[in-house]
Each structure stands twice: as C-alpha cells, then as structure tokens.
Write a sequence for this structure.
C-alpha cells in the first residue's frame, strides 16, 4: 500500500505538469520555461512526499488533518507567491 501511494504521488505530479505543457501547444498565454517546470515539479513532489511522511508517521486522524492541511497551505502560499507575487518578495521575480 505504501509504495502504491508513492507511485500515485509521482503519477499525479506528472499529470499535473502535463496540463501546462499541453496548454503551451494550443495557446500562447501559457509560457512556461524549463525552470518553471522544475520548480513546479519540486513543489508538487515535495508536498506529496511530505504528505506521505505524515501518513506514515502519524496514526491519529486529527494529527494527519492538522499537519496535512499545513503542508497544503504552505504549498498554496508558495505557489501563489511564485505565480503573482502576493507578498512582493524577491521570489516573485519583481
């Protein structure tokens, strides 16, 4: 079961990265560089592996929900900062 979840994490990250790759074929509005794909892959895989660690380490539902929610919130905050610069940090490229 544990290895199946890891395969699902890698497959899910790959499928999510295919969305902008396919969109780049059909429209010019999506313009990702190789570095964008590397950063997005790192974020998705890193978050997925953190969630897998939480599922393996904690057995209580409450602990899993708290730490899992924290990982997902951090993922969304970093993603939003990289995408549009919510906090105007140097990560946003401005």
């Amino acid at each position: 079961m544990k290895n199946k979840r890891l395969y699902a994490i890698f497959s899910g990250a790959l499928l999510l990265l295919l969305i902008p790759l396919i969109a780049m074929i059909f429209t010019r509005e999506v313009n990702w560089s190789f570095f964008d794909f590397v950063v997005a892959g790192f974020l998705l895989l890193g978050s997925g592996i953190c969630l897998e660690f939480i599922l393996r380490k904690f057995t209580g539902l409450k602990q899993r929900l708290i730490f899992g929610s924290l990982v997902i919130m951090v993922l969304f905050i970093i993603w939003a900062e990289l995408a549009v610069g919510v906090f105007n940090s140097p990560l946003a490229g401005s």
The mean pLDDT is 91. The CA atoms of residues 56 and 65 lie 13 Å apart. The radius of gyration is 15 Å. The chain has one domain: 2-92.
